[in-house]
């Protein structure tokens, strides 16, 4: 079962942070540092709230509904690659998922 990095419970209305960790929508309010950003409870990466609210993680929400799918199988792939490399970051400007090669 996919779990929230903030409350460790089952993800409800999953939101994807720019560090690629996921939190429940209700937890976003709890972990917000101020009206502009939040710190990931897992890796402490700072994410702008505008990017969290505008990017619900529908892919991960679907995974929670289908617990037979592994999280690794459902990880986003790089949107700049011709190959299916796993995404390790998300661009804060355009919102694209990026692999290590394209995240610079």
What class would the helix/strand composition place it in? Answer: alpha+beta
Helix content: 10-25%
Round the Cα radius of gyration to an integer and report it: 13 Å
Order of strands in the sheet with most strands: 1-2
- Please report which band the strand proportion falls in: under 5%, 5-15%, 15-25%, 25-35%, 35-45% or over 45%: 5-15%
Beginning-to-end CA distance, first to last residue: 32 Å
Shape descriptor reads globular
Helices, by number, come to 3
Number of strands: 6
Mean pLDDT, as a whole number?
A: 76
Biggest β-sheet, characterized? 2 strands, antiparallel
- Unreliable stretches (pLDDT < 50, length at least 5) are 68-73
H/E element order? EEHEEHHEE
Description of the molecule:
By secondary structure, the protein is α+β, with helices and mostly antiparallel strands. The chain is 19% helix and 13% strand. The strands form 3 sheets. It has a two-stranded antiparallel sheet with strand order 1-2. The chain has a two-stranded antiparallel ribbon with strand order 3-4. Strand 5 and strand 6 (97-98) form a beta hairpin. The relative contact order is 0.17. The model is unreliable at 68-73 (pLDDT under 50).
